[in-house]
From TrEMBL:
One of its GO terms (molecular function) is large ribosomal subunit rRNA binding. Residues 322-332 have a biased composition (Low complexity). Forms part of the ribosomal stalk, playing a central role in the interaction of the ribosome with GTP-bound translation factors. GO terms for biological process: cytoplasmic translation; ribosomal large subunit assembly. Residues 333-345 have a biased composition (Basic and acidic residues). Transmembrane segments: none annotated. HAMAP family: Ribosomal_uL10_arch. This is Large ribosomal subunit protein uL10. It comes from the Archaea. Belongs to the universal ribosomal protein uL10 family. Keywords: Ribonucleoprotein, Ribosomal protein, RNA-binding, rRNA-binding. Residues 322-359 are annotated as: Disordered.
Length: 359
């Protein structure tokens, strides 16, 4: 081939290559613009984005979870740089806080659920897969009792190594009873991974975790998405009880507490009337019991100071539900009664008490 011909051919090939590169670049730019416009469209329909960490999640399990999430919104895997460009073009609030999370392998969940609903749903969407050597057990792992379908032979030693009691029955290895073979956090050995697969046991839980949720400008990290429902329930009950008690104590006139307000007011009124000896059909029994108790206490004091009076005195036990009873009181109780009653007994009551004792 002549030199001139070779030069022309080389020039032609270079030109073709350049055109090919330009074509690829044009296609790539078109695809990027398409993705950016798609993200913008999704953000016009959904106000919340959850960034899901899918690193290490097998394709099959990811598809299962994605399918379950599809009823709540749209799950897409995009390049982080394209997401950033789309969000920047839209001038969304909180982009600076969101940017540090746009790294790694992410799926983007566009939805109108709030952040706590998303976290709750993700916690429930758990799929199981076979264990691989080196995996960490996500929970305690058990092998069930019964036939394994594995013929006796070399596998018997594997069962023995894993401390699984077995027996040969009907031509296959049977597990004598359900056995725990690993605790949560334990590393799965080669032998255990192989055996679990043979037994069709899928012990490794797979779920997606939200790294962060963007809710119309508000950024919520993963550690802010966990709600202690039981603690919240207890706090709510306590708050309700405290507010109810306050409302009853200040006699707030609302239908929900009026029965308690009226009952409390009636009890206080009867108690007050009884102590000031205001006699009505409702207070008479209590007023008389209080009067008898005071008289008995006074008589006891007098008999201690002047035994020559020879007063036959007992202490009346006063309740609002039972008749007063006469019981002899020890000297120590008498002293306590003396201290309590000295402040309440007036001269008038002393006179009344003495009159009742001597007829």
């Amino acid at each position: 081939m002549k030199g001139s011909t070779r030069a022309k051919l080389s020039k032609l090939l270079t030109s073709v290559k350049k055109e090919g590169v330009k074509h690829k670049v044009r296609v790539a730019l078109v695809e990027k613009d398409k993705v950016i416009n798609e993200v913008k469209d999704l953000l016009s329909r959904y106000k919340v984005i959850a960034i899901l960490d899918i690193s290490g999640v097998p394709s099959r399990e990811y598809k299962e979870i994605k399918k379950a999430l599809s009823k709540y919104g749209v799950v897409k895997v995009y390049k982080n740089t394209l997401i950033y460009r789309a969000l920047k073009d839209l001038s969304i609030r909180g982009l600076d806080e969101l940017e540090p999370y746009l790294v790694g392998v992410n799926a983007y969940f566009f939805t109108n659920l709030n952040a706590f609903e998303i976290a709750n749903i993700l916690d429930k969407l758990v799929t199981l897969r076979y264990a691989k050597p080196g995996d960490k057990a996500t929970d305690d792992i058990y092998v069930p009792e019964g036939p394994t379908g594995i013929p006796p032979g070399p596998m018997m030693s594997v069962f023995g190594k894993l401390k699984i009691r077995t027996m040969v029955k009907e031509g296959v290895i049977w597990i004598a009873k359900e056995t725990k073979v690993a605790s949560a956090g334990d590393e799965i050995s080669v032998e255990l991974a192989s055996l679990l697969r043979k037994l069709n046991v899928k012990p490794i839980a797979v779920k997606l975790n939200a790294k962060v949720v963007w809710d119309n400008g508000t950024i919520l990290r993963s550690d802010q998405l966990r709600l202690d429902i039981e603690s919240f329930r207890k706090d709510l009950i306590t708050a309700f009880q405290l507010s109810k008690n306050l409302a009853v104590n200040i006699a707030l006139p609302i239908p929900e507490i009026m029965p308690e307000v009226l009952s409390k007011a009636f009890t206080h009124a009867v108690t007050l009337a009884s102590h000031i000896a205001y006699v009505t059909p409702d207070t008479a029994p209590f007023a008389f019991r209080i009067a008898v108790a005071k008289a008995q206490a006074l008589a006891l004091i007098l008999s201690q100071k002047n035994p020559d009076l020879r007063l036959n005195v007992g202490i009346a036990v006063v309740t609002t539900t039972q008749q007063p009873t006469q019981q002899p009181a020890p000297a120590t109780e008498a002293k306590k009664e003396e201290e309590e009653e000295k402040k309440e007994v007036s001269e008038e009551e002393i006179a009344e008490g003495i009159s009742s004792l001597f007829g």
